[in-house]
Amino acid sequence: MTKNRLLLVDGMALLFRAFFATSIRKQFMTNSKGIPTNAVQGFLRHFLSALESSQPSHVAVCWDMGSKTFRNDIFQDYKSNREAPPLELLPQFDLVKEVTSAFSIPNVGLAGYEADDCIGTICEQMKKDIDITVLTGDRDLLQILDDQVHVWILQKGIGNYAKYTKKEFTEKFNLAPKQLVDVKALMGDTSDGYPGVKGIGEKTAMKLIQDHGDIESLLANLSALTPSQQKKIEQDKEMMFLSRELAEIHCEVPVKINLEEADWRGVPKSAFEIVQEHELNTVRRQLYQLEKEIVEDPFAEWEMTR
User: Fold this and answer.
1) Phi, psi of 156 (to 5 degrees)
2) CB 57 within 8 Å of CB 4
3) 210 with 170: CB under 8 angstroms?
4) How would you class 120 by CB atoms within 10 Å of its CB: exposed for 0-12, middle for 13-18, buried for 19 or more?
C-alpha cells in the first residue's frame, strides 16, 4: 500500500514568483472586471505542475498573514528593506486564496507568523504519520528537512525544482539541516534585512559551522580562529544571536490542518467554475489535463456562450 503524501505549498513564494515573471513585461492579464490575474494564473501553473509531479494524497497551502510578525517585535528592521507590493498585485492576494478554496484546498496562516513557521509546525506535527513534500522558493525552509520531509525549491521555469532530502542535503553541504540556522546567524540575510556578523559571508559561515557545529561551540573555541574572525565575532556577538533567532523557523505555531479537509481527490467542479468566472485562461488546458477522469470538456458550454 502506498504511503500517504502531503504536498505543503508556500503560497506567497509561488504568487510573488509568478507576478514578477510577467509584470516585468507589463503582462498583468487583466480580466473583464478590471482585475489583474497574472500572479494568480502563474501560481496555478506552478501549483498544478507540482500536483502532477508529486502525486499527493493531501494538499494544503500556507500564507503570510500581513507584513508584520513577531520577528519585527524583536528586530524592528526585519524585512524593512522590502518595497511595498505593486498595486497590480494587491487585489490578487484575496483572489488567490479564493481560488485555492475553490480547489477544496485548505488555506493556512496565522497573524504574527510567517508561512514558513506554519509549514514548519505542520511538518513537526505530522511527519511521523505522513510523508511531506514542501514546495517553496525560500531556501530557509531547508532547515526543516527530515527523514519524512522533503523540500522542493522552485527554479526557473514551470515544473523545475531543486529537490532535497535530508540525506542529500547533508552529503552536499556537510551540515545537518538545522545547522543552517547557525550559518544564517553568522552570515545574516540581506533579503530579510538582518546583518549577522559583519564581514562574514556565506562560505566562511558554512566552514565555521562545519568545523564547530554551532555558534556556542564557535565562541568556546574563538582562539582557533584567525584574529580577524575573532574580532568580527566578538564585536557582533549580540547581533549573531539575534540573527539566529530571526532565522530559525518556529515549529510550535498554534495552527494545524485536518487531513480530511486536505484530502486531494482531483480537481473539483468549483475549480473549473472559478477559472471561468475570473477568466484564468492560461491554466484552462493544464487544469483539464490534470483531471483525468473528466470525459467531456467542462469548458465546452461556457465557450458556446462567449
Assistant:
1) -65, 135
2) yes
3) no
4) buried
CA dihedral of 69, 71, 72, 76, whole degrees rounded to 10: -170
Each residue's pLDDT tens digit, 127-186: 999 999 999 999 999 999 999 999 999 999 899 999 999 999 999 999 999 999 999 999
Work out the end-to-end distance of the chain between its first and last CA atoms, rounded to an integer number of angstroms: 46
Cell numbers for 114: 510567517
- How far CA 188 is from CA of 140, 161, 239, 289, in Å, comes to 12, 25, 9, 43
Is there a contact between 6 and 134 (Cβ–Cβ < 8 Å)?
Answer: no
The residue with cell 516585468 is 24
Q: Please state whether the predicted TM-score (pTM) of the whole model is above 0.85.
A: yes
CA contacts within 13 A on the Cβ side of 13 = 24
How would you write 14-62 as a 3-class SS string?
A: HHHHHHHHHHCCCCCCCCCCCCCCHHHHHHHHHHHHHHHHHCCCEEEEE
